[in-house]
Amino acid sequence: MAENTIQVDGVIRVSPNSDSNGSTTESTLPLTFFDTFWLKFPPVERLFFYELTDLTHHLFDSVILPNLKRSLSLTLLHYLPLTGKIKWPPQAPKPAVFYSPKDGVSVTVAESSANFDRVSADDIHEALELRPLTPELVTSDDFADMVALQITLFPNKGFSIGVSTHHAIFDGKSSTTFIKSWAHLCKSLIDEDQQSPSLPPELTPSFDRTVIKDPTGADVSFVEKWFGLGGKFSSNSRSLKVFPTIGTNEGFVRGTFELTREDLKKLRNRVEEYYQVKESKNKLHLSTFVLTCAYAFVCMVKARGGDRDREVIIGLTADYRTRLEPPITSNYFGNCVVIQVSFSKAEDLMELKGVEIAAEKLSEAIKGLENKGAVEALEKLFCLFGKVEGGIQFLGTAGSNRFGVYETDFGWGRPKKVETVSIDRTGSVSLAESRRGHGGVEVGLVLDKNEMDAFASFFNQGLKFV
Prior knowledge:
It holds the Pfam family Transferase. GO terms for molecular function: acyltransferase activity, transferring groups other than amino-acyl groups. Keywords: Acyltransferase, Coiled coil, Transferase. The protein is an alpha+beta fold. 32% of the residues lie in helices and 23% in strands. It is globular, with a radius of gyration of 22 Å.
């Protein structure tokens, strides 16, 4: 593996900047059924790379780091639950988040000798190279942290911010909102020299759990289901450790590919023409998300090769904030997502019209969300977990082209690159808006080197014939 020596300069805890007069009163944030569904999932890990070619040790220590720490402290005033821990009191039917003003968030400060240009590039490179830049989120039998951060200096090149978040409190939208809030306050401190900057309404979180209705007690039911499965991994049935993940193989590589607005337009026309010829009466939902996933997933199935009769399971993560009845505020902080599943045979997606077939299946899956309640959809996933057999190819997504991650400016410019590190352990495809703008989409994935080479060939060659 390419050299990536990390020197950890320290691990600190940043607490909310508060005038609470030393109050230690503990508060509790309940977990809804949306949260307890994700309770045992591994953390979501992201990296934001910022290029500053004149970044010396002195500038990092005297300007970058102090402003990041101070703005984080201000941010945590708005996000107090993130300073606490998930715990499970002996008599309680489910875990909850416990926090107080004296709590804080773990921040690792480090320096890397890695080649900044390589680890922040789209080019194919070793997946393990990003691991030293990513903080570990602590989970144990007795408690689990909410978030862990790492700020890493690349002398005379830039710095990175690594973020690990617990899936029982963060969905993708919530995680992005937290990071953008931190960036907004940091930029306000630097650009406007505000001593007490405020958050705009769209970045001000709502932790009101009463808006999530759960008349059937699905929150506790999901906990019981997870801890029924937990015996396979721990003798402690109430352990708050997340389920183990398969470590990243040294032969795995990471790559980023882009679909431009013009590519997406051509794909849309191709799919529409195919179904016009078929005289299909189905109205397709051909969003940028659907078209991107259809094309990327077909390339992944072709790159895997092998048994054409194998089953392919596609999981699409959908935000349910506007789908609930009544809808809830867009800045609701917590989990509010559902995974809609679609099934196919590899052979169908490997055909000449595989993209068209995939687009139809994904379109139908998304339209199916309109007729399905959130609890029902999540219950079906638990049933699926118990029936899965070997040889099945899973395809899923992490992130969204609607999150606007490249808008995350802490005061030193937009990120050069944003990576979803955790896809190296989940096999999902990461999605983000193109940092070049103009309506494109970045597709990130981690595969075996041979499979990645095949994927790159299918992806690039396929666009020539769209």
